[in-house]
Amino acid sequence: MEQNNPSNDPIPESPAVKLIEQEEEVFQHVNNPVLGLKPIVKKYLTAPENVEQKGNKFFFRDTEATVEVTIVTDEIIRVRMAPHSVFLEEFSYAVPKLEVKVSVFHLHENENEYRISTSTVNCHISKKDFLVSFSDSQNHVTSADATPMHWEENVQFGGYYVFGTKVCHPEEAFYGLGDKPTDLNLRGKRFVNWNTDAYSFAWNQDPIYRSIPFYISLNEGIAHGIFFDNTFKAHFDFGSEDRNKTSFWADGGELQYYYIHGPNMMDVVKRYHLLTGTHPMPPLWALGYHQCRWSYYPESKVKKVANGFRENKIPCDGIYLDIDYMDGYRCFTWNRKYFPDPKKMIKELAADGFKTVVIIDPGIRVDDNYWVFKEGKEKRYFCRRCDDYFMEGHVWPGRCQFPDFTNPEVREWWGTLFDELVQLGVAGVWNDMNEPAVFGAGTFPDDVRHQYDGYRGSHRKAHNVYGMQMVRATYEGMRKLMKNKRPFTITRAGYSGVQRFTSVWTGDNVASWEHLRLGNVQCQRLSMSGIPFCGTDIGGFSGEPDGELFTRWIQMGTFSPFMRAHSAGDTKEREPWSFGEPYTAINRKFIELRYKLIPYLYSTFWEHHRYGFPILRPVVMQEQDEINNQARQDEFTYGDKILVCPVMEPGQTSRKVYLPKGNWFGYWDNELIEGGREVEVATPLETIPLFVKAGSVIPEYPVMQYVGEKEIEEVKLNVYYSEAPANSFFFEDYGETFAYEQDIYSEKKFVASGKPTSFTLQQSMEGLYTPRYENYHFNVVGLPFKPSKIIADGKEVTDFVFDAEKLILDFKFTKNFKQIEIA
Ligand code: MIG
Hints:
Elements (H helix, E strand, L loop, with lengths): L17 E3 L21 E3 L5 E5 L2 E5 L4 E6 L4 E7 L23 E4 L3 E5 L3 E6 L5 E5 L4 E13 L6 E8 L5 E4 L13 E4 L16 E2 L2 E6 L2 E7 L5 E5 L6 E6 L4 E7 L3 H12 L12 E3 L7 H13 L6 E4 L20 H10 L3 E6 L3 E2 L5 H8 L14 E3 L2 E4 L6 H9 L2 H6 L3 E4 L17 E2 L6 E2 H23 L6 E4 L2 E2 L7 E3 L7 H16 L5 E2 L1 E2 L8 H11 L5 E3 L17 H14 L1 H14 L4 E3 H4 L13 E3 L3 E3 L9 E6 L3 E4 L5 E3 L2 E6 L7 E4 L3 E4 L13 E7 L5 E7 L13 E10 L2 E9 L8 E7 L8 E3 L2 E3 L2 E4 L4 E7 L4 E4 L1
Parallel strand pairs: 15-31, 21-22, 21-35, 22-23, 23-27, 27-30, 30-32, 32-33, 34-35, 45-49
Antiparallel strand pairs: 1-2, 2-11, 3-4, 4-5, 5-6, 6-20, 7-8, 8-9, 9-10, 10-11, 11-12, 12-19, 13-16, 14-18, 16-17, 17-20, 18-19, 24-26, 25-26, 28-29, 36-37, 37-38, 38-43, 39-42, 40-41, 40-43, 44-45, 46-47, 47-48, 48-54, 49-53, 50-51, 50-54, 52-53
Helix pairs in contact: 5-7, 9-10
Ligand MIG binds next to loops.
Keywords: Glycosidase, Hydrolase
Protein name: DUF4968 domain-containing protein
GO molecular function: carbohydrate binding; hydrolase activity, hydrolyzing O-glycosyl compounds
């Protein structure tokens, strides 16, 4: 496909263009040898001369540039700017299909501005100076340009540096941007998006592994989002250089961003998912505990670790093989000395309930006797430099070449390479080093060429999507090979939209209390940034945790959507029983809790997949109008019903926890506490602060050593009394196929509501799946009265036990009830 190339167009010298000297600007390019010699000239939009409408698109022109405004939905508006009025062809790895869903919109014009309005948002373009702003239907301005959009020609590579600058308000807070290892609120900071292998990264280090150019602004309780869909090295400044300005700019590509309306942060995240997609339902087993290490080998060691779990009665579903399983680190091969019969080993592990996950790196060893290299070479699938030399770099296997994952044909090929691994029974693939990382050089040079799905680009454009396209190729290939069973994938690098293909871990962290704290914030941030299935290396990758730190990390990891312990090769043994008692027992208790809550986590996953909600939710997302919540980053909710506050300091015996408004029950003691305030909570090593929102129904499976170990005969429903009506969801399906896409699932909705002397629980169902178990075991917590009668669908349940001291009511009934009344 031919692409318009703005650099081929004549560049008119327009007197109307404002020339602004470098000194006046907040942006400077220090690393450009060519531009460094000349004064940097930024050109700003001047004034729109007219407007032209084509369907849902509006074009505004000054003497030189054009701005395109696309009404995507009632709440999402896209803005693009073409310095010389030539737009790039529409293509985005983040937004696979721009679905326009808008009912009505109108264009208005007056003396001062053009205004395009949907039912909820207005986009204003000022006639005087081309400033773009957005307001809600009450005419409250939510986002406004501080300076007109601008650009700077890139003499070295062609194209432009593109800039957007918004007004930053005194109390405005900022969230999002993926995995940045810093405080949750990004205010006052500046960031770069450039995927980087960041071994033992530090607090405030930037950039690290991922590039998620999406942020949420919260000002005076009103939120909106900006998704700057640009894959080049991109920069964000949240009132750092100038406290009154928020800026985002990139070293190439288009100034293209989506304004995502709120006013609720939750809605902003939901709408971001509308653009970039959600995570597919994971295989149920992947919600269990995973054990990893660099590396478990030979086979006898793998078996020993697996047996350790079963002997210690600590549940585990996934076991990982790091790079040493390969022959000389050649992807898709086996070291036969360490693993003489992988098929047999994987089968035996599977019989004992373990899924085997193997690592794969993008670097392919230059070796004519190695089939993967030979095929890739013959088919011309490896990346090349601008002058056609191969992109070569050293990684684990030695001298390597790298597949161009931005080429759909290469992705297809890569997908087929997993054939043997799938035949051997491998259930998951761990995609590492895909920033891409290269020893010494760090990554590829800028001039490496990429096919970019037919749109072509240098590494400047493809760098940030390389890893995402690798894991996409892996995921799609595995899905085909596994005959539509859900594959499990994990990646280190990523770009917006990567959640459609994979889970992520936060990379090479450190066994320190600071990193435990950092991991907590990173997982919350990833969740708000559209990456729900995330976790840290439990225990810390490098360094040595003591028993206390490891246990505190297991406790936090129990509430990470992805739960995996991992450690570097030069560290001591790091299994949940490695630290002796009391640690082993506490680790077991928490991993068991993880398994009990799998149906709850899975239901939360469904809410993510179907509705675009994040799994972890920082407190500020629940009460965004509480200014104090802007700085809270320790506690979060897991789904919307369980509030978790990890313990992140050694020797801590109690800590303050903020509970959002409403009633909460202590998870450990069922004590009723009114929220909207901080409470002091005891934090002995055996527990962390956990609270359940009143009115919740939390489904619980019996503890198993791995998912599917036993047939489930009964599901426990923990029902927490509330007077105010409250909804809960309970999702189930086969847990391993894509049948849910054809409505083969069961989504139950519970509504709990109480009165001082009665309590009602209603259930309704949707979907075509019927679980095999027959019974619910009810555990009703916090009844404020002594129950004397339970009526279920008109029939009286006579067999119940009430603990008057703990206020717990216990009884059983079939799962297909419609209404249960307790009085
Ligand atoms: O250069 O495969 O982040 O989890 O154990 C190190 C070995 C390569 C980096 C990953 C880490 C993994 C390690 N890898």
